[in-house]
Specification:
Transmembrane segments: 68-85, 92-109, 129-148, 160-185, 197-215, 235-253, 285-303, 315-342, 348-373, 409-429
Order of helices and strands: HHHHHHHHHHEHHHHHHHEHEE
Subcellular location: Vacuole membrane
Family: Belongs to the Ca(2+):cation antiporter (CaCA) (TC 2.A.19) family. Cation/proton exchanger (CAX) subfamily.
Structural class: mainly alpha
GO molecular function, one term: calcium:proton antiporter activity
Oligomer: single chain
Domain Sodium/calcium exchanger membrane region: 95-255, 285-422
Largest sheet: 2 strands, antiparallel
Number of strands: 4
Helix content: 55-70%
Length: 455
């Protein structure tokens, strides 16, 4: 086994053994639905190749590299990372840079999940849960921050909205449909308690995002008067603080007081799902930082080339941000959720889809508003009428779909059809350049440059 090879040669060998079991011989970390979903795409490395290396001091390093880069079924996509960097600096074309960067983000996102889980084995379930809560949607957060710093506020809003819609409708819908087809004739059960918590938080998020929109329309209709034009912005910032407080309470609820609600089902009856440390704690931190830097580089490429790609492909920036970015950016996690649905493990699937949607809606979105506030950028929670309406309906449909604690393929079909209709809406919608950061939306108007409103 490669873990044995690492224990023999790595300097932190004792840490590997200590991290594997707690004081009573049990696993030191509680696995989450996110980590178990990502683990569905992992594969065991062939340690025999490392043993054949004649120079013994190199074996730990090679074993480490093998685990970090080849320990996933998505390793075939890793060449897209250097190709994207080469395309960027060799001026191959911005469309190529965009496409290669998106492909490169897929294995990087999966590896960040793996490394976070490895570090959590050493730190324990509480710190590990916080790491997962922070890094679970690292790709979306980094893309949002880069877009924000470049003044592309609508790209931030659309990409985050698309991530929520993708998790609620596409991922969950595909999982329920595939699971229902494989288990045709029987309903798939799941625990409603976790779903109820997540949908409650999502409804709170929709409320906070709807209030600035409703205030703007109420003022425009003359129903209310405001003291200043910045009232909607101030309301958005206040709502963002409330959302972050709610997310902190949710983390305390999940990691401390009601951990049993979020414990995923066992993957294998013989306990094969128990994760073991295969790299050291220091190595995990180093590779996590390295992968995060790569994600940041590719995210900057994606944000910088999204408008030329939009013009080249004839698609609106909103469609690319809401539909394409979330699908590609979370492909690994989404595939894992579907795999567990096929295995009749819907609690894990729901934990991935609803957990990711909740994290983005209640953490990444308000955090982006707060960061923009600190940077002097006027980003609010007004996602415009069509976007907010799509989010509201998606949350309500998902909530009703999950209310009885059982699933079948028809529920998956309904969620997928909702996603197709919403996608079609944004496919035919164009953002007028004169309102790039405003609140209007036009039809069949080419997408222009998205400039920030800087305070």
């Amino acid at each position: 086994m490669e873990s044995g090879l690492l224990r023999k040669y790595a300097s932190d060998a004792g840490g590997l053994r200590a991290a594997r079991h707690g004081p009573h011989g049990h696993s030191a970390s509680a696995r989450t639905a996110h980590s178990m979903s990502a683990s569905a795409l992992r594969k065991k490395s062939d340690a025999s190749l490392v043993r054949k290396v004649p120079f013994a001091p190199l074996r730990p390093l090679l074993a480490n590299l093998q685990e970090v880069f080849l320990g996933t079924k998505l390793a075939v996509l890793f060449p897209a990372v250097p190709l994207a960097i080469a395309a960027r600096y060799a001026h191959f074309g911005q469309v190529w840079v965009f496409a290669l960067s998106l492909l490169g983000l897929i294995p990087l996102a999966e590896r960040v999940s793996f490394l976070t889980e490895q570090i959590a084995i050493y730190t324990g379930p509480t710190v590990g849960g916080l790491l997962n809560a922070t890094c679970g949607n690292a790709t979306e957060l980094i893309i949002a921050l880069f877009a924000l710093m470049q003044g592309k506020i609508e790209v931030v809003k659309c990409s985050l909205l698309g991530s929520v819609l993708s998790n609620l409708l596409l991922v969950l819908g595909t999982s329920l449909f595939c699971g229902g087809i494989v288990n045709l004739g029987v309903d798939q059960p799941y625990d409603r308690k976790q779903a109820d918590v997540s949908t409650g938080l999502l409804i709170l998020g929709v409320l906070c995002q709807s209030l600035p929109l409703m205030l703007r329309y109420a003022v425009g209709a003359g129903e209310h008067s405001i003291a200043a034009d910045t009232t909607g912005l101030d309301l958005s910032r206040a709502c963002s603080i409330v959302m972050l407080l709610a997310y902190v309470a949710y983390l305390f609820f999940q990691l401390k007081t009601h951990t049993q609600l979020f414990e995923p089902q066992e993957v294998d009856e013989d306990g094969e799902d128990q994760e073991e440390a295969v790299i050291g704690f220091g190595s995990g931190l180093f590779w996590l930082a390295f992968k995060t830097v790569l994600i940041a580089i590719l995210s900057e490429f994606v944000v910088g080339t999204i408008e030329p790609t939009s013009q080249s492909w004839g698609l609106s920036v909103s469609f690319i941000s809401i539909i394409l970015l979330p699908i590609v950016g979370n492909a690994a996690e989404h595939a894992g959720a579907i795999i567990f649905a096929l295995k009749n493990k819907l609690d894990i699937t729901l934990g991935v889809a609803l957990g990711s949607a909740t994290q983005i809606s209640m953490f990444v979105v308000p955090l982006s508003v707060i960061v923009a506030w600190i940077a002097g950028i006027q980003m609010d929670l007004d996602f415009k009428l069509v976007e907010t309406g799509s989010l509201f309906v998606s949350v309500i449909v998902t909530s009703f779909t999950l209310q009885d604690g059982t699933s079948h393929y028809l529920k998956g079909i309904l969620l997928l059809l909702c996603y197709i209709v919403i996608g079609a809406c944004f496919f035919v919608t164009r953002q007028p350049s004169s309102h790039a950061n405003g609140n209007g939306a036009g039809m069949a108007v080419p997408s222009g440059t998205w400039n920030a409103q800087v305070a």
